[in-house]
Amino acid sequence: MVQMEVRLPPEMEADDLKARERARSQELQRDGSWVHLWRVAGRYANVSVFDVGSPDELHELLSSLPLFPYIDAHVTALARHPSKLDQPTEEERRLMSERANQLISDILRRVHEAIVENEVTYEEYQAVKQWFIDVGEAGEWPLFGDVYIEHVVEKNAFGDRAGSQGTILGPFHLPDAPVLEAPYELPRRPDEQGDRTVVTGRVTDTDGNPLAGANLDVWQADASGAYSGFMPGPPEGNLRGQVRTRDDGRYEFRTVIPGPYTIPLDGPTGRLTAAAGWSPWRPSHIHLIVSAEGHEPLVTQLFIDTSDYLHDDVASAVKDELIVHPEPTGKGDELGFSYDFVLAPIHAPVPVG
Predict the structure, then answer these.
(1) Which helix (H) or strand (E) holds 202?
(2) Count of beta carbons in the 10 Å neighbourhood of residue 117
(3) Which of 103, 170, 279, 299 is 20–30 Å from 217 (CA)?
(4) pLDDT above 80: residue 228
């Protein structure tokens, strides 16, 4: 366990530093080394649990944080308690091992078949091996997965779910975005670029009943395609927030039309994309996680119909049902569109045996 308190000089401009810190911390959380993260209320501090093999590994991990020079850290070594109840049973271990064997064997078999069918040379194999190393060193495995794999997992996992269409989560979601006050408007800079837009709609269950107090967690890029918390430019929390439906299930919030953007071009994922001659672009879109008690959360995106790259999205996440059509509202230069969300009920698991 590590208790960390950040002490920045009062006069320091730290928006870029905080954005890089957030990106690095999320990278470590995704790869499993940063297991738990809690904020200390009222202080710029946190309590964290890391899964590392040695003190040297922990030091190397902490020193990789952009804020490390400004952190006071106190470390307490922890070990798993033998009486902890969530230890897997022998039967669960056996089933997990069988599932791992099935998946790993099937993936390797298909890779081996592709090598034979395409007569892969040793030079090509060495290039691929180096690319694997480069992806790891660049911390881009989450990016590669989000761009080239997640859309298939999403379609397979939720293809027969009732309710509205979902799509991929992507790498730019930040948990615990602020719950905004009505009338809802995503936080933005006074001179925020992009067409002013009002988004309205309704959240219901599969029988058409309104879901009062449903939550919409909304985030998006700005007009230049930059996300706050990940890229230089937008201030912390820009174009992020949570809004709630009224008693009749209706919601309304204001924002701006986001811009399209490319995945990072200078890393190994970008180089792979360029080598294959694929488009690196994502079309303009707004992310949402729509949730309500007793219902399955819906992870989705709404795609702007006038955007380029709707038909060659690098992440293959566009679905026709998710394309929206902003039109003038008659209030100055404001645009608007409506989209209704239908949430599927949570089904209790069926007992086995």
Answers:
(1) strand 196-205
(2) 8
(3) 279
(4) yes
What residue spans of the chain are helical by DSSP H?
15-30, 55-63, 90-117, 122-138, 141-148, 150-158, 268-276
Asked if 203 and 340 count as a contact pair (C-beta separation under 8 A), the reply is yes
C-alpha–C-alpha distance, residues 254 and 199, integer Å? 6
Residue ranges of domains in the chain: 2-75, 155-343
The structure tokens listed for 198 are 């009002």
CATH code of 155-343, in short, is 2.60.130.10
Superfamily classification of domain 2-75: Dimeric alpha+beta barrel (3.30.70.1060)
Nearest to 70 by CA among 20, 32, 113, 138: 20
- Alpha-carbon distance of 173 to 194, in angstroms, equals 21
**Measured CA angle at 204 (ends 198, 207), to 5 deg:** 150
Please enumerate in sequence order all residues whose Cβ is within 8 A of that of 93, keeping only pairs 6 or more positions apart, or say none: none
8 A C-beta contact, residue 162 and residue 347: no
What SS3 state is found at 28? helix
- pLDDT, tens digit (0-9, with 9 covering 90-100), for 160-206: 899 999 999 998 999 889 999 999 999 999 999 999 999 999 999 99
Q: CA distances (Å), 271 to each of 131, 262, 266, in order? A: 9, 12, 7
Q: Give 90-110 pLDDT, tens digit per residue.
A: 787 888 888 899 999 999 999
Dig out the tokens for 11 from the structure.
């006069």
Is 287 within 8 Å of 261 (Cβ atoms)?
no
